[in-house]
Amino acid sequence: MQKIKAFVAVLMFLTFVMSGFAADEAKKAEGDWISLFNGKDLTGWIPKVKGYPAGENFGNTFHVEDGVIKVRYDQYGGKFNNRFGHLFYNKPFSNYIIRVEYRFVDEQLPDGPGWAFRNSGIMIHGQSVESMGNDQDFPASIEVQLLGGKGTGNRTTGNLCSPGTHVVVDGKLYTPHGLSSKSKTYHGDQWVTIEVEAKGNKITHRIDGEEILSYTDPQLDQNDGSAKKLIAAGLPIMLTGGSISLQSESHPCEFRKVEIKKLAD
């Protein structure tokens, strides 16, 4: 009887250990949430503002204060002058979910484009910051467009913009450079959490766990000037990964969390 009890105890222990091992392996395969923003400074991030070299944070456009990344224009002399900016993470990614908390605050610079009111974005599958032209407005990438409400009316967020790229929607190549999601409108200065899953050839946008947009086969636009240079340099036309960056488009905004979960290939 004692031997049977000992055998059962050993068996239970081994089962417990193997279960834990299996759970660990599953966790490794899918990955944990990793914060790309340390809440203190811009370690790991590279600013690129149009008209200035990569790494030069013109006007202190991107800075950290009160534990958030702030996009501000206090040192722009009151004029935006189409100085679009992007804050690049220093490492490319493929097969992942990115989760970002963002909000819009204060007033847009008066000469900012009308469409840029409460407008920013998460650029994914993008070109490297080093490959951007000095006077290039936007990196060739897939833009997850972030929009705030205007106080009245409907204005979806988590939309698609495609500077230098195309995607496939419902089995057909989609060449217009904008596609609205089915999200609700978020007015005021409230924080919004968006997740984007990019796995294989499919990209899905979600807010509060609800799918608001999906498409497949992100690819470089072979007729776009910036994309042509990338293709000539050897970048594949079909995109399965690339840089991640956060936008500056003339309206102050903030990013409180930027997290990523790696997915198994």
Provide key terms for this protein.
single chain, about 260 residues, mainly beta, Jelly Rolls, 2 domains, ten-stranded antiparallel beta sheet, eight-stranded antiparallel beta sheet, about 15% helix, about 40% strand, disordered N terminus
Architecture overview:
The chain is built from two helices and 18 strands. Helix content is 14%, strand content 38%. The chain is mainly beta and 265 residues long. It has two domains: 1-30; 31-262, Jelly Rolls. The longest helix has 29 residues, at 2-30. Strand 14 and strand 15 form a beta hairpin.
Count the DSSP helices: 2
Q: In the CATH scheme, what's the topology name of the largest domain?
A: Jelly Rolls
Oligomer: single chain
- SSE series: HEEEEEEEEEEEEEEEEHEE
The total strand number stands at 18
Relative helix content: 10-25%
Query: Rounded to an integer, what's the Rg over CA atoms?
Result: 22 Å
CATH architect. name of the largest domain: Sandwich
CATH class category name of the largest domain: Mainly Beta
> What distance separates the N and C termini?
49 Å
The total domain count is 2
Portion of residues in beta strands equals 35-45%
Strand count, sense and barrel status of the largest sheet are:
10 strands, antiparallel
Tell me, rounded to a whole number, the average pLDDT: 91
Helix/strand class: mainly beta
* The CATH superfamily title of the largest domain: Exo-inulinase, domain 1
Could you list the spans in which at least 5 consecutive residues all have pLDDT below 50?
1-29
